[in-house]
Every structure is written in structure tokens, then in C-alpha cells.
Amino acid sequence: IRLKQSDQECFEKYFCDRHWPSSGPYQEMSLQECVAKGMELGEQQSEVFTWLTCTNRGATDVCTAALLNKGITKDDTGRRYNCDPTSKSTLGILAIEGIILRLTRNLDKSRGFVNGALCKVIDKLDGHGYFIARLLGSANYVLVHPMEEGGERFLPCCYGYAATIRRAQGASLSLGCIYFDQRRAAGRGYGYVATSRFRTPGGCYLYGHMRRTDFLPVGGEPSA
């Protein structure tokens, strides 16, 4: 899909050098490379670099790439505790110090153990099923342990390097990247919702092609 000249200029002005093209005549960057670059930027700015995707599969791909950058393969995660099935992720949880997780249940609101809160693994207590994590928002420490529901046993969390745009509604991000991880255009409004999750334009990156259709308003084409 070709952008109109005015749209192209508008997008380029907004993203500037924060556009990481997946293909093209100028530069090609793989998802693995961009995830690594994002993690490096996060460490430099002492922030979590969060990817926003359209699909659960895209979020899983980003988290898989983030773990690979830490020397953890998908096979490694398959032999560990299952993450919360409501997260739609297929990656098992490894309680390794420094890993970023996203809590998925409201288990202790007084301490901040709530759905959507990001935390960092601090100390493993018993295998990969029981560990201490520090909440990135409040710096409170919480105990994460298995729970059972519907005959399934799992940990109330998933990896926190990526989330779908739908799940990120209401979030306020300092640093991250939008990834429209499907061949056809995203649903109307997705681009607006994704960009509005970031506190400043300077913290918002884009991976892949610039497509006007990903940023169409919910109500259709704007009137002239």
C-alpha cells in the first residue's frame, strides 16, 4: 500500500529516525535485531522498552526474541511453569533474575499485585514456581507462586516485553515500539490507540512498513 506524499511526510516527521524498517532499499532490520536494540535503549534510559503488537502471536514473537537476547531458547521455556492462559502466550515462565514479567491477576491490590503491572524477578525461592519480584511502578516486593483454575496449574503472569494494543489500553509508556504484525491493515483506530499510549513522541518507535491504513480513524476517512 503506497502512502500519499503528505502522509509519508507526516509519518516521517513523527517517527524521524525512530522508524526501523523491516525491509526496503535503505536498511533492513530483523525483529531479533530491533528487540535487542530496544532492550539496549531501555537499559540506557533505565526504562522498560515495551512492544505493542496487533496479535498475541506477535507479542509472543517479541518476547521470544527478548529471551533469546538473554540466552534463553523457546525450548527452555517449554520445560517450565505455564504462564497464565488468559495471556494467550505459549512461553513457560523461567524465574531468572532480571527477567521482566507482566502480572495478570488482581491478587493483592494493597501491594500492587494487579493485572497489567510490570515486575522484575529478584530472587528464586523454589525452582521456577516460587519467586520474589519487584514491581517497577511502586518498587514493592511481591511473592509470585502457582495458582489453579479450571483444572490448570500456572503462574499468574507472562513475559512483559510485549503486549497487544488492546491489552495496553489505559497504559502509559515511556519507551517502546509499535509493531503491526499482520499482512493486512490493522483495525481502524489501532494506530491512534498505540501512539497515544506513549507519554512523548520521542519514546515511540515503529517497526516494519509505514502504512497509512494502520492509522485510519475509527469513523472512516476524515472530511475534507
Please tell me about this protein's structure.
- This protein has 224 residues and is α/β, with parallel strands linked by helices.
- The protein is 23% helix and 22% strand.
- It has five helices and twelve strands.
- It has helices at residues 5-15, 31-45, 56-68, 74-78, 190-196; strands at residues 19-20, 50-53, 100-103, 118-126, 130-135, 141-144, 147-149, 152-154, 157-159, 162-164, 176-179, 204-207.
- The strands form three sheets. The chain has a five-stranded parallel β-sheet with strand order 1-12-11-2-10, with helices on both faces.
- A hairpin with a 2-residue loop joins strand 7 and strand 8 (152-154).
- Helix 2 (31-45) packs across helix 3 (56-68).
- The longest helix is centred in the first third of the chain and has 15 residues, at 31-45.
- The protein is globular and about 55 Å long.
- The mean pLDDT is 87.
Question: What key phrases describe this protein's structure?
Answer:
alpha/beta, 224 residues, 12 strands, 23% helix, 5-stranded antiparallel β-sheet, 5-stranded parallel β-sheet
Amount of helix: 10-25%
Oligomer: single chain
Would you report the number of β strands? 12
- One letter per element, helices H and strands E, the order comes to HEHEHHEEEEEEEEEHE
Tell me what portion of residues adopts beta-strand conformation. 15-25%
Radius of gyration: 18 Å
- Quote the average pLDDT: 87
Distance between the termini: 22 Å
| Tally of separate helices | 5
Q: Identify the overall geometry.
A: globular
Main β-sheet, in a few words? 5 strands, parallel
Q: pLDDT below 50 for ≥5 consecutive residues: which ranges?
A: none
Structural class: alpha/beta
Strand order of the largest sheet: 1-12-11-2-10
